[in-house]
Amino acid sequence: MPRLPRGLRKRKVRTAEGVNTVYVWRSRRNGEDVRVTLGSDYGVALAEYRRLEREGPPAPPAAPTLTLEAFSNRWLAEYAASRRIPRGRAQAAQRFRDYLWPILGQVPLSELKPADLRRLNAELETRGVGLVTRRRLLEDLRCTLRYAVEEAEVLDRSPWRRGILPTLPEAAPRPLNEMELAEVFRVAPERWKPVLRLMACTGLRWGEIRALRWEDVRESPYAHLVVSRSHDGPTKSRKVREVPLLPEAQDVLEALSRHTGPVFPWLPETASWIRRYVRRHARIKGLDFHVHRLRHTFATKWLEQSGTVETLQQVLGHSTVKLTERYGRLRPWAVAAEARRLGNNSRITGTEVGTVAKAAS
Description:
Layout: E1 8-15, E2 18-29, E3 32-39, H1 42-55, H2 68-83, H3 86-104, H4 114-126, H5 131-150, H6 178-187, H7 193-200, H8 206-211, E4 217-218, E5 224-227, E6 241-244, H9 247-254, H10 272-281, H11 292-304, H12 309-316, H13 321-327, H14 332-345, H15 350-360
Antiparallel strand pairs: 1-2, 2-3, 4-5, 5-6
Helix pairs in contact: 2-3, 2-5, 3-5, 12-13
């Protein structure tokens, strides 16, 4: 065999069939050692060697473009998997699949502009997607872009800008009035009445009432519940709180038979069954009942009984007072009664005001 030209090397490679001889082109380009395997046929290897010496090594393959869909999948697997409960992760993934990826999924992450985010919101609004759904989607997208900048370091700056997130209109709390509450307790099956009564006098969420265990019911130093979990993980705020037991709540728990484990082990994953049952059997036409309205009812009654918003915030487990104010607000008749009380106790009546004004002139 003729002498190999400079830069062409022969190597022996052990394979399953035995030891084979392969030819390797080796060169140093731009300070880096470049090697290209040319196969075991000398003629083919020599021809390829001459081409490489003339044209140089092939350019390395370009890195695949990182699209918004690819990185949002990474955000779901890395960030959401460790910071959100399973239900929250599933909801975020569903919103991405339904609304984000069909519109912006194939846009390169580095080319994403604030105008694209505004276009996403406008297009979803045109399709009739609800305001709350659009806001939740954009909140997840904002978190994804922040993760790309601060932790993944694949972006120098987030394209998110102030004013992109749509504002939710302020909604009045929806407590049940006395007649509606009495109707709910009347038509509910006997097995469900303790559950609904306990929710109405503690303000617990549905997931928290499902996860409530008898060891969470404490009598010392005062009667209270320790709320530390929901049915699918930690509480919504990821905080442990103590909920005081009012006399009515104590009566509900004392009427139940104590045992180890959950207080209501038979509760289903969702409250859709009892919601449909109450609506179907209620005599009040159009009663819009769902179990979360019991939480609104508890908050409203707490304030009507002169409880403070700051204390109510701790009882409900809210992160901000602003959120608590959305749940509990004095009903019009309570505001009117308070105004009458202040008016009766006031020393300056309308006549006195007029007298003072006349004297001043």
